[in-house]
Amino acid sequence: MLAEMGLPGGDSGLDRLFEEIPAALRVKQTPAIPSALTEMEVGRLMSARAAQDGQPLCFLGAGAYDHHIPAAVWAITTRGEFYSAYTPYQAEASQGTLQLLYEFQSMMTSLTGMEVSNASMYDGASALGEAMLMAVRVQKKSRASHMLMSRAVHPFYRSAATAVAGDQGIAFSELAYASDGRTDAGGIDSEGAPEYTALVIQQPNFFGVLEDVDALTDRAHARGMLVIAVVNPTSLAVLKPPGEWGRRGADIVVGEGQSLGVPLSSGGPYFGFMTTRMANVRQMPGRIIGRTHDVDGRPGFTLTLQAREQHIRRAKATSNICTNQGLLVTAATIYLSLLGPEGLARVAEQSRWRTATLVTKLGALPGISVVFSSPRFHEAVLKLDRPVAPLLEELAKRGIIGGLDLAPHYPELGNALLVCATETRTDADIDTYASALTAVLKERV
Question: For the segment 34-87, what is each residue's pLDDT rounded down to a tens digit?
């Protein structure tokens, strides 16, 4: 390469190649980079690294869920027809990819009860930020760029959304939650409340509590606000879809799709989704796939309503989201196709039942009580008689991921622990957790 560029070989040539980089910024040595390994050696190294994670029992949810993934999902997803196909801008060469994305959009509109979906977002949290920006564009008659967000919305979502939308002149206010864990609807139309662009509701909320979404949606619409719904797609197999909330339904729906056939994989990757009403489609970020017919009347699929240039016009762009999580969406589409509506409903029901069993078992232990008595899905909050963090450390030593310490996010709840159980947790798993927690509590950690 150096010879082709007319540079001398060796270190002098490399110095010439990188001379535009200031000397103070260059790394002289890279001792942390090992020598080259053979394929067999790399395989053994990766297996050893993976084994360090172990196989702990997981009772942590908080937006990422350990669901069973049928083997067929990723066996099909990683076939060459799907795995290598990426950009769908040339429709004549990408009909398989485009059709799959179209099917994904159809499934998401069916789950959420909305009219149109895009072909996915980066993740659920950034999708919420994009939904806020979209709400401001939709509410052209309103001079407000002010979001009202329940404090029972996932704290990471709130943080990411304010990071995405906060530098674009949008203000944020929080709506408190009541003693039952539900959002306090009275704060929406309290006397002296400012004008808001949209209300953000999570169902089920971060505590796992089911919100009174009908009352919240109708109150928000009565004040001229849009409603942005943050939902768990698995729960929509058994819960009322956002498109049917209240008299008019939600206006924009977002969420995290990881629970649909994507493994946890030590923290990622994830993919977000967004659906809305057809009246808002021109303001929706991301790719949108449409079904049409060619000149011979044969059905086909293509990108529609938006050009790529719409997303690369810098400050004038509708959004900076101009791609999608194609591989993960492929897995989710295959997962939903294999399970079907009845299969997804069974996953949701079993997850709800397993969480109820876990709460009953742990709530009966000395020094532990259930915080919220409201109906719940997936998650539950427990209150302990001592700090949670040391307990979680001891449980981890016993091969159990015990949940999430809520103290950094909701200090007003005291020593609170968020726990979760999906359909993958058995009665024996729950008994193992309860026994381990009993032992740790006796040690007075």
Answer: 888 999 999 999 999 988 888 899 999 999 999 999 999 999 999 887 876 666
- Tokens (6 digits) for 189: 């139309």
399 in Cβ contact with 56 (< 8 Å)? yes
Q: Is the confidence at residue 94, as pLDDT, over 80?
A: yes
Name the burial class of residue 408, with classes exposed (0-12), middle (13-18) and buried (19+) by CB atoms within 10 angstroms of its CB: exposed
Structure tokens belonging to residue 14: 């490399």
The Cα 67–Cα 261 span in angstroms is: 8
13, 19, 129, 155 from 28: Cα distances, Å: 15, 13, 41, 42
How high is the pLDDT of residue 310? Answer: 66
Q: Cis peptide leading into 366, omega within 30 of 0?
A: no
187 C-beta neighbours (distance < 10 Å), count: 18
Mean pLDDT within 190-206? 87
**Residue closest to 417 by CA, chosen among 399, 442, 395:** 395
At 322 the pLDDT is 67
Count of residues for the chain? 445
Cα 353 from Cα 98, distance rounded (Å)? 37
Which residues pair with residue 129 across a beta bridge?
none
